[in-house]
Amino acid sequence: MDAHINHLHEGVNSTVTHLRQVYWIPRIRQRVKVILRKCVNCRKVTGHAYQQPDPPPLPKERRRLCWSYVGDIIKDQKRRGFIERRTENGNQSNRIHYIPHHAVKKDSSTTPIRIVYDCSCHESPHKASLNDCLMSVPPMLNDLTGILARFRLHKHAVTTDIEKAFLNVELDKEDRDVTRFFWLSDPSDPDSPLITYRFRVVLFGTTCSPYILNATLMKHFKLNSCKNSRDTEKRPVC
């Protein structure tokens, strides 16, 4: 190694020539090659394309926990009569459509997971979605200017909300089969058989749902006429 360094890191032939002038070393060429490979200054740099290391596998428990949440939501919807299990029979004459759905995580302590039903999903670019087949009409909402004016009219303002308002409006039996969706029979097992459900009520996500909800409220105001309902009817639902 010293002979190689003293002669300005020359190659194998030059280093062997200088050594043979002083020493006779058996298999000198092979030994010089080994020494040159260990020399940092003479080492050949081989460039390789940068490759990102494979990411670590994601924990499976996180996905299973999400499935568990979704399973609890669907079980609760079935218990409350919002959805029903659909079994095939020979007398099927209604139109059938299956709605894709996925879970969405929210930063909320009460509902950390909610289900989004994609009624605008297309089976293919040339086929219509469920929302494309529904009539889109104005939702009968109040004018925003009027809402702000009434809010500032008095000293105190009161707001209210109907819990799961869309899910309190029943869907006609002939239209329920276009709101079908699949879910696992066992959420803890992704390979478990699929169960077909369908909505018994108006679901959030269709283009006509806001109009149906507000039209239903206005209809109840007219059917149950009293002083308060007439006063409320003058102020459309906001």
UniProtKB/TrEMBL annotation:
One family from Pfam that matches here is Integrase_H2C2
Name the source's superkingdom: Eukaryota
Residues in Integrase zinc-binding domain copies = 2-45
PANTHER family reported for this sequence: GAG-LIKE PROTEIN, PHD-TYPE DOMAIN-CONTAINING PROTEIN
Protein name as catalogued: Integrase zinc-binding domain-containing protein
> Could you tell me which species this protein originates from?
Mytilus galloprovincialis
> What high-level taxonomic lineage is stated for the organism?
Eukaryota, Metazoa, Spiralia, Lophotrochozoa, Mollusca
